């Protein structure tokens, strides 16, 4: 794989019950073919997907935010859709990631820095107001959207990654991996909210939804107050990471079916200014 990698790829651990099951079958390990991926003609974002029909951007919040940020910055980026297993080949095991036309591979903070540079906006690192609203999104609305997408029964929530038909043994493996992924998502939500992780700490979904609704109402008030000041959140003339994340989260909320969300979408629909802002920035 060409280019720079920010960290070493994480190793995927097989759950113990599955490992014992597979121990009864012979395993043949083939050597790596050492193939390289040529640099794309256009910057390419690696994102979970593809999304359901009718959507051009990933349903994963972080991936959709990266795609939206690139679009807001006027960058013509291709997309490489990957499944859950695909993150093992991403820089540092992080998705979204970016493969530039120069051959560089970026993930995490490097990806955010590349997008911010292309957007051409001011550095918001020391902007207290900007950081406060960014924190509001990441500690309230993001956990609620993640819970709706990843903790709801798979038959209720829209599929972030298509579910392929699998042979019997692969289906068993997928069940174990799904359980493991759910536990990982719960810990991720706890971390975002500043709480302790682990089974001993309960996750209060009602509280998460209530705080997310309050955040939506706060954001509606902020946008109303800034009308006529600028296109982007806070009255800015150029987009920022805050705009990208806000758009990603609210545009996903707009399509959540009632079976996996009976709170967030109705709250957004009661906020005409916020809803109009999201629609304005649709692809």
UniProtKB/TrEMBL annotation:
Species, as recorded: Rhodotorula toruloides (strain NP11) (Yeast)
GO annotation (BP), single: mitochondrion organization
InterPro entries the UniProt entry points to: Glutathione-S-Trfase_C_sf, Mito_Protein_Transport_Metaxin, Thioredoxin-like_fold
Domain (Thioredoxin-like fold) ranges: 61-154
GO CC aspect terms: SAM complex
UniProt-recorded Gene Ontology molecular function terms: transferase activity
Superkingdom of the organism of origin: Eukaryota
Protein name: Glutathione S-transferase, C-terminal-like domain protein
Keyword ATP-binding tagged: no
Keywords, comma-separated and alphabetical: Transferase
